[in-house]
Amino acid sequence: MRYPQIGTRAFVLAASAFSLIAASLAADRESALEVPRTHWAFVPPERPPLPTAHSVSWPKNGIDYFVLARLDQAGIEPSPEAEKETLIRRVTLDLTGLPPTPAEVDAFLRDLSPDAYENVVNRLLNSARYGERMALDWLDLARYADTSGYQTDGIRFMWRWRDWVIDAFNRNLPYNQFTLEQLAGDLLPNPTTDQIIATGFNRNHRANSEGGIVFEEYLKEYAVDRVDTTATVWLGLTIGCARCHDHKYDPISQKEFYQLFAYFDQLQERGRVSKYGNSAPLIRAPTARMEADVRDIETKLEKSRIAWDAILPKLRRTQTEWENSLTEETSTDEWVIDGLESRFPLDDIELASEVEPEPATVSDGSLQFVRGKVGKAAQFDGKACLRLKDKAGFGGRDAVSFGVWLRPEDSTGTILALVNEGDTRDNGFSVELVRGKVRVKLGPRWLDDAIRVETPQPIEIGVWQHVLITYDGSQMANGISVYVNGEPRELATQLDILTGGISLNYPLRIGSDGSGNGFHGNLDDVRFYRRMLSSVEAEVLATTTPIYTIAKKMTSERSTGEREKLDRFFLGSAAPEEIRDKFARLKTLEQEKRERFAAIPTVMVMQDRPDPADTFILTRGEYDRPGEKVTAGVPSCLPPLPQGAPANRLGLAQWIVGSSHPLTSRVAVNRFWQKYFGAGLVRTPEDFGTRGESPSHPKLLDWLATEFVRTGWDVKGMQRLIVTSATYRQSSDVTESMLQFDPENRLLARVPRMRLPAETIRDQALSVSGLLDGTIGGPSVNPYQPASLWKEIASDSSYSQDHGPGLYRRSLYTFWKRTVPHPSMAIFDAPSREICTVRRPRTNTPLQALALMNEVTYVEASRVLAGRMLRKSEGSDIDRIRFGFKLLTARNPTRKEQTVLSESLERYRSQYKVSINAARALIGTGEYPSSNALDPGELAAFALVASLMMNLDEVITRE
Amino acid sequence: MDPITELESDWNRRRFLSRGVTGIGAIALASLLNPRFLRGAQPVEDSPRTFGFSHLAPRAKRVIYLCQSGAPSQLDLFDFKPNLAGRFGQDLPDSVRMGQRLTGMTAGQDRFPIAPSIFTFARHGASGAWVSELLPFTARITDDLCFVKSMRTEAINHDPAITFLQTGSQQAGRPSFGAWLSYGLGSENANLPAFVVMTSGDGGQPLYDRLWGSGFLPTKHQGVKLNRTGDPVLFLSNPPGVDAAMRRSMLDDLSELNQIRLAKKGDPEIANRIAQYELAFRMQSSVPELVDTSGEPQSVLDLYGPDATKPGTYAANCLLARRFAERGVRFIQLYHRGWDQHTNLPKDIANQCRATDQPSAALITDLKQRGMLEDTLVVWGGEFGRTVYCQGKLTGANYGRDHHPRCFTMWLAGGGIRPGITHGETDDHSYNITRDPVHVHDLNATILHCLGLRHTDLTFRFQSRDHRLTDVAGQLVPGILAG
Question: How far is CA A653 from CA A42, A646, A665, in A?
Answer without folding.
Answer: 18, 10, 13
